[in-house]
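Reply to dn_fold:

You asked what the input looked like. This is it:
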Amino acid sequence: MASLSGKFVKVSLPKPHVALVELSRAPVNAVNSAFWLEFDQIVEKIGQETDIRVVVLASSLPKFFTAGIDWHDSVTSIQDFENYDKDPARRALQIRSSILAFQRAISATERCPVPVIAAVHGIALGLAIDMITACDIRYAAANTTFSIKEVDVGLAADIGTLARLPKVTGNQSLINELTYTSRNFSAAEAKEIGLISKIVDGGREEVIEEALKLAEVIASKSPIAVTGSKHMLLHSRDHSVEDNLQYVASWNGGMLQTSDLKSSVQAALTKKKATYVPLGKPFSKL
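and this is what came back:
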């Protein structure tokens, strides 16, 4: 979809109801401020498209998912701190505001109302972990090399890795080790700790193909059921069991009235494929 694509992020519709979003800033997908602002805007727009039910996040570059932050851009940003308020507390608030904007951009896939599948290959460093942990499902090609790189450049990861990674994995000790050492780890180790759910033999083409197959299955389901499930899973991650039970009861008080329920049951009884109407567009902001 050329209308949704930008300078650094390309969008296409390779399957019905499925958007393929490809990071595309040669030579290594280093992310500068223009890149992450565009990424935020494009994912936001995709979330408002009524007929897109699943997103696959990938890279257009053969050897790189992303090498992480563009440090040339970041050095310039750090030098810009000199232009901020001279009072340390006020300067800290200004820097904090910049970090929050960056966090919001990379969290766009988590806010997206439909599931986002990360299809990772090649080099996936630093910000790559922030980006994929905000996605719902993560597949990786066998040739993927990961690293939580931030300690090597003198900072604690602040865009999402340290907030989400312990929640999506099952080995806190190893997460701490990977964070403190910044060492590289393989797709096999990523699967062992639960960062990814599937290793795909091959590279970029193979992992995207596998992710698109999964996306096609999810896109065939009721969009009301899928978007509600994503919403509830995120709520469950951050709330108690009782809070989530109460919340889903209130949610389904409205959602059980959907025509999708009747369509799904009829399809199951008749052994035919169900058809669902698109989700409605959200109201414009006042």
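The chain has two domains: 9-219, 223-270.
Hope that clears it up.
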